[in-house]
Design brief:
mainly alpha
Length: 56
């Protein structure tokens, strides 16, 4: 996994956390759900890259 991919995936997770917290703060369930989706997507991408790294 390249460092750029790691950073991009981590940034997506962090962005998702920010959206989720902002959605909670302003009582916007759609923004909160979008944040959770972004977090999940970033985590899945990282998991996929880790699998690629583990293969010879």
């Amino acid at each position: 996994m390249s460092d750029a991919d790691k950073a991009r995936n981590k940034a997506q997770e962090v962005q998702g956390k920010v959206k989720e917290k902002a959605g909670q703060a302003v009582d916007d369930p759609y923004l909160e759900a979008e944040g959770k989706t972004d977090q999940a997507a970033g985590s899945l991408k990282q998991a996929g890259e880790k699998v690629k790294d583990a293969l010879p």
